[in-house]
Amino acid sequence: MKREIPLIITALTGIIIIINYFLPEVTGKVTQVVRNWVIVISSFAIILGILNLVIISLRKTLEPITHLDDRIANLILIVSLVFTIVIGMIYGVGPKNNYVFKLSSDYSTVLPLIDFQVATVDTNIFNSVIFYSIYNPLSAAMFSLLAFFIASASYRAFRARNLEATLLLLAAAVVILGRVPVGDYVFGFIGLKISVVSEYITAVINAAAQRAILIAVGIGTIIISLKLLFGIEKSHIGKSE
Amino acid sequence: MIVIEIFKRITRRTIFLVVAIFLILGTIFSDVYWVKKINLEVLRKTITPASKQAYDFIESIPSNSVVLVSGDYGPSTRVEADPILENFLKQCFRRDIKVIAISLWPDGAQIVATKTRQIANQYNKIENQDYVIGGYVVGGAVAIEKMGVDLKDAIPLIANNPAPFLRDIKTAHDLSLVFSIAAGDTLVYYIRILKSRYGVNVSGGCTAVMAAEMYPYILSGQLIGLFGGLKGAADYEILESNPEPDKVSEAVKYMLTQSLIHALLIIFIIIANIVYIYDRLKFRRK
């Protein structure tokens, strides 16, 4: 029964949602309840995720076998998590606007005109310090590393080894240059509008391939969904005992 | 052959260093007047058709209509997504279109709320009268599905909002447009659920890496245009404000940095291939 009940729930929920697509009047209310359940369950999943993260990090922090760097990193994670939650609960996330005098300069004139302006500044510590001064730059910095890795990866990966690789290389080069002004500026001297070529590759060749992938993924999703509904696919309820 | 030997010595660290130098130079020179002027001139001539299509559709929405903007991105993609959101809000407020601003990402809610209030202030728009902030909407695809049936049930923060324009809004079908700025799958969810099932007009913006995936939807008419990446954002800024070189904002300015890095990528690819072909020819001769 431990395996049968989840399978029955999956099948019933799936069938209700499918019927609702064709006959919304019949199963409208039931579907609404199911949708609310999904949202409530996903909210609980966040709590479960936080608890799991705290337990794993605590274990890693306290275990003497773990490397010192990892122990410090895990400790920072727990402290940051607790600190953010506490500050968020105390101060809330809504704006707390204060009027401040702001120095503004106009450099368009020969002599800079300096005057004071009244501006609104959000002084909520959660917004101004935790979100905009800590989380925002850290998150942007992590994502910015991508520029370095892509440069390094393209140096090593884009090689004209055979015909297919050469075509991929040429298409990538055209799209890379076609998306920025420098491409049109440089190729403009020989009368080539590289952005138009880039747009053709993206809108015609790429779209055709994307469409094929999308249709294949759609068919695959239908098959997996049917397997789930009929209880053939059981991976979502865990390993068999 | 000395050049080839020098090329062979290029390591990952060298690449990182050169990229860093180009990034710094790009950021410094992006504020120089003549650089901005050249950037603008080229960008004005190369507006992407998808950007133009989205802009024209928003321009055709009648005043006092209601649109929903969903800023589904976090701080990591703000450089690309923020200018799209800003220009969309500017276009809506300029045309007296009422806005419901939400985010399906927990860290996007803060950004969307701040940006909406900032731009609204510039156009003297009043919160809960000309626009409402719906905050973070939990549930992703399920929440979008709920919007098709009951919008206020899907966005609890606007359920009891006194804004007069919300009185006639029952479902997403009553909206003139749903505009999603996505750094993930949400734009695709909006298309698949709200457009395909409920017939709601969907348009939006996305990061540059996602833009290629969106083209089948644009060509099928399920997505009304698209502002793709920083180029899309720059297109939007030019279409909306047509700024002079000294008045351009981030999207147009940062195109120089992006230009330099893209050019650098091409140079690295050419160098790598010169070395590769040279080695192959040398091997064949042996």
Textual characterization of the structure:
The complex is a heterodimer of chains A (241) and B (286). Chain A has helices at 4-22, 24-62, 68-91, 125-157, 163-178, 181-187, 194-229, and strands at 97-106, 113-122. By secondary structure, chain A is mainly α. Chain A has a two-stranded antiparallel sheet with strand order 1-2. In chain A, a hairpin with a 6-residue loop joins strand 1 (97-106) and strand 2 (113-122). Chain A is extended and about 70 Å long. Chain B folds into two domains: 2-30 and 258-285; 48-253, 3-Layer(aba) Sandwich (Rossmann fold). Helix content of chain B is 60%, strand content 11%. Chain B is built from 13 helices and six strands. In chain B, helix 10 (208-220) links the parallel strand 5 (202-206) and strand 6 (227-228). The model of chain B has no long low-confidence stretch (mean pLDDT 92).
What is the gist of this entry?
The complex is a heterodimer of chains A (241) and B (286). By secondary structure, chain A is mainly α.
Computed over alpha carbons, the radius of gyration of chain B is 22 Å
Instruction: Count structural domains of chain A.
Output: 3
- How is the quaternary structure best described? heterodimer
Morphology call of chain A:
extended
Structural domain tally of chain B: 2
Order of helices and strands of chain B: HHHHEHEHEHHEHEHEHHH
CATH class of the largest domain in chain B: Alpha Beta
Low-confidence stretches of chain B: none
Q: What structural class is derived from the secondary structure elements of chain B?
A: alpha/beta
Task: Tally the helices of chain B.
Answer: 13
Strand content of chain A: 5-15%
| Arithmetic mean pLDDT of chain B | 92
Strand content of chain B: 5-15%
